[in-house]
Amino acid sequence: MPPHRRAALRPAGEAARLTDQLQAAGLTKRDVARIINRDPSLVSQFYTRGKGAAFIPALTHALDAVQVGISDIPALAALAAPHVTRRITAAGTRARVRSKAVLITPSGSGTGRVSAQAIASGSTRLRPLIAEAARRGLRLAFTVRLHKADYVHPSGSRTDSAGIRRDTIQRPDQSEERSYGSAATGGFAAADFARRVDATGGDVTAAVQQWLVETGRIHSHAHITHLEIRTWLPR
Prior knowledge:
This protein is α+β, with helices and mostly antiparallel strands. Helix content is 38%, strand content 14%. Strands 1, 2, 3, 4, 5 and 6 form a six-stranded antiparallel sheet that branches. A hairpin with a 4-residue loop joins strand 3 and strand 4 (175-180). The longest helix has 12 residues, at 56-67. It is elongated, with a radius of gyration of 20 Å.
């Protein structure tokens, strides 16, 4: 039997049933992922691979909160966080988890990078970096990679913030990386970008793309394939 047929016949687990109830209450799978602070692809695996046992207590508390009228996702995430536990391996130990793609040093220097798979799910792993940078009053810059035809202005154009070619990297696949903001130019207030991310429901990709479209740097149909966020403490 093909793998996809086996997955389709797998009985839904408790995590999937709780997710169904949360969706019936008006949430999406992406909302559920934000509540348990995991990638949306893991929520899909509640159905296809029977995963999610470690998140049952957190999902149960979130569902209880939804049923009494709490619908704010950050509030639900805060309620669920103490109940998110790592799964137990066959050897009886707690499973190790991959570290997040973000890190901010005591001096304020931080970098977070995501590529195709994370981009497709909204680059949510970068949201904590932006939120922490906003909380600490840091500045930020970012680098995006798109197909060169998706940019409005040609490489090296002074109309675009890259201005000179040293801030642009050409790739063999006809894509191009451009950087926006830097310590030399002062960059952007992390708090401003945090508000943009909140306005898109936590979708960092959408927030960055909207800024690029609004400022006339990329076409509205453009597709970001790589994204990097950098932070620093202003002097």
